[in-house]
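haha ok so turns out i had the wrong file open the whole time. this is the CORRECT one, sorry everyone. sequence first:
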Amino acid sequence: MSLEHQQNLGLRERKKAKTIASIQMHALRLFSELGYNETTVEQIAEAAEISPSTFFRYFSSKEDVIITDNYDPLLISAFEDQPSHLTPLQAVRNAMLSTTSDMSGDEMSTTRERNQLVMSVPELRAATLNNLTDTMHMIAEMVAKRVGRDPGDLQIRTFAGAVIGVNISVMLHYAENPNENFSELLSEALNLLETGLPL
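then structure:
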């Protein structure tokens, strides 16, 4: 793949991620004003100035607006760009921080509001767990490829599970402490994991 093709792919993925973030931002505002159960897909589409069919190009349902995180392709690309001398955890940390540092203020606000909504709606908590399990498998595959191991290896899965656990703890902390810096929290938490979580 040429550098130009990679850059175009990255731009497309970033544009798609920003469109998704915009729809989520409008949806969250409506959820706050009208209530989650009372808000319709049509209302979200109208607020985001898109058609319902465009909405369904990005999301399969209203629930999906909250649990979808379109930064996975960006994370994979950033991870694959990490220098080979870094440990898998250092490479994951750098990749995660590079994707969060590129988020706008609106995107960070949307992330925090999504986390807060997930915490308050039981159906969304359950759906988010499925989504995080998928992300754990993705991280296991990324890391396994980097170190030449099987993604089903217990050590690889444990590593991926630990990274997801850190991510969950940071998301919950950030939802409760919105004035803190998400990227700094994530970096600190992953550093704790790297040092063996001394207590």
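The chain has one domain: 3-194.
again sry for the mixup
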